[in-house]
Structure formats: C-alpha cells, structure tokens
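Posting this for the archive.
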Amino acid sequence: MYKSLRQWFAPAPAIPQKSKEEISTLYPKLRFQVLESTFIGYTVYYLTRNNFSPVSKEIGEALSYSKSDLGDILAVTAITYGIGKFFMGALSDRSNPKKFMAVGLLLTAILNFSFGFANHYWIHLILWGANGLVQGMGWPPCGRSLGHWYSVRERGTTFAFWNIAHNIGGGIVGVVASHSAAKFGWQYAFFVPGVIALLGSVYLYLRLVDTPQSEGLPPIEEYRNDYPPEEKENHESELTTKQLIVEQVLLNKYIWLFAIINFFVYIIRYSLIDWGPTYLKETKGADLLGGGYSTLILEFGGIGSTILMGWVSDKFDGRRGMVSLLCIIPIFFAFLGILFNPPGNIWIDYVLFGLIGLFIYPPVMLLGVAGMDFTSKKAVGTAAGFIGLFGSLGRTAQGKGIAVLSTNYSWDVALGAILVSTLIAIFLLFFSWNLRPRG
C-alpha cells in the first residue's frame, strides 16, 4: 500500500526535450499555467483553513464553548499546520505537485464537511487539528512548482504576484463564512467552502503540471540563463533526505534567522485574523457581518503592496530583510491606533486593519522567498515548511495567549502583547538588512 502510494505521488519523469520552436511556444504557456493553477488552488485552500475565526463567536454561543475552548481549537490547528507544513514540505520535494496539492484539497474538503456535522468539542478539536495537518499540503507544492518554472532574478516579483492568493482567499473567506452562517447557520461556514474545495481539487489535478523536464522542456535556469550562485553545474542534482533536512535547513543559519523572525510576524498577522472579528464584536460593537468584513479589509489591504514590495526586493538585489523591516515599523503604530481608538469609531479600526494588511503581507511573502534564496531549489518545500513551522508556532502562541490575556486581564493587555511581538520582529529584522542571495 505504502509503496503504491509513493509510486503514485512520485514526480513525473523527464521526457525527451522538444525542438527549439516547440520550447519557445510551450514554455511561456506552461509558466503561466503553473502560476495560474497554483494561485487559484492556494486561494481555495484558504477558504477551508480560515473559515473558523469569522464564526468562532457564533459557534461558541451555539455550542457553549468558552473563549478558552475556541483558543484551544485555534492553537491545535496552528500546531498541526506547522508540523504538516514542515513534513509535507519534505514530502512535496519528492512528489508530483498536481497530485499532492489536489489530494490535500480533497482531504480538507472532507474534514470541513465533518466539522460542520459535528457538535462536540473534542470532535471539533480533533477534526480541526487534522485539517491543519492536511492544509500543510498547500504551500510546499506551490513553492516547488514556482521554483522550477521561475528563476532567481524574477523570484521576488513572481512570488509577490502569486502571494496575493493569500489575500484573496483570506479576504473572501471572511465574507463567505459570515454570510453563509448568517443565512443558513454556522455549519454552512464549513459546508460551502467544502464544496468549493472539491471543485478546486479536480481543477488542480487537470490543470497543474510538474517540472519543465516532465514536459520535454529544459530547466528554467537554462531557459533564462539565470543560475543560482555556485549552482550552474549541479542545480538539478537530487538531494538525499539528510541533505534536504539537515544540510539545507537545520545547519543553515539563514533559514533559522528567517524562521525565528517568521514566528513573530505570524503573531502579528494572525492576531487580527484569528481574533480580530471577536475583538471588534466584543469591544467596538461590530456584528457578525461586520466582523467578517474586517477580515476582508485586512487581507485585501496587502494586495498592491505585496506586488510592489516583491518587485522592490528584486531591484535591491534580493534584500528581502531590508524591505520587510521597513514594512513592519508602521504596523507598530497602527496597533497603537487600534488600542487607543474608543468604541463608536469602528471605521477607524477598519482603516487601521487595512493599514496593517498593507504592511504585514510583504514580509509574510518575503521571508518565504528569502528562505528559497538561501537554499537549493530542490529543498524549497523543506525550507518553506521549516520557516512555516515557526510561523505556525507563532500563530499557536497568539491563538492561546490572546484567549488567556483577554479573558483573565483585558483586550488592552492582549494588544500590548502584540505590540511587544512587533518590536521584537523589528529588532530581529535588523540582522537581515544586508542579506541578499547574490552578494
């Protein structure tokens, strides 16, 4: 059984290279096809990952869950997502992305349906924890695909465009979940995204392709004459498991730096995704739909800036850390604004949510790209998974931490903890100021 699964998921084999005329026609078409399918596929992943938070208050009221119970569900999901992202990343580096990513969407759809039908706390905890695990099958195959079809010098701009899939999916889910729950009941915040995920799974299987070589095309480095530093002779060499995990990741000081920074960046990011709607409902007078729209505003705020900052990082020789630092600083002042904005001015909170979205998503994207810059393209999934693991640990810390602080102390104390995390992220980013992939 295990051997059969490995064979089915195995990367597509290389086929004889096509003629120059066929290559010149097919390469641009398939590059766009890979970008398009991973973009849409990852957008759909978000619909079945972040649909809990917009309706968590309503689930708590319907099933008598405390804020601590809701925090536990968020925390366990973040832990399993981080574990899944790391281990699934290592598996994805040795798998066909069209199959790997499609199966992940199928599994998350099944878990969403199951969550909607369940009404017991422990079942919900287990199901959403399992959902976090299979959600780890989303990002790594995207990173693997884009790493094989787009070269080093275009990586920042390409990933910046692709990364707005986070914003579109994360923004739409707030509206889809809240409207579905308001019209039909909280269960439909999981049923409706589940149906969309089933359709997305079929789409990915039919549309996504594996490496250029599996389509009879040369490697992207050869096609664009853009080789990573010191890798011109061995950029296609396959890596052993030890090389993937130990040499390329665990002994790589740059990967560790980006991973630790990502821990604090994810505290900032997910504090508003996981708890923003609840915070606005409890302190600023927002209703169910208003809480859902706050997520839309946060996510959509980062679309233009992510593309721009990715392009800027390419223009500055890949200095992803420098650009990330300049983005994090305004976020500190935006959180101060939320903290001191009194009830009755919720439009100001919406503006500040949008401002945080504007500046948080470039670092979210750039830290992942920076990890790719400092490892082999054959270890992209593993490196991304490791950096993502630390991000998920950050989400876990805020998921449970904000629940405890807001319940036992106040929302002001919880926001104070986020401000401290922001300052730590700023401090750590100073150490990445001059880091670049080619210098």
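The first helix runs from residue 2 to 9. The chain is about 75% helix and 0% strand.
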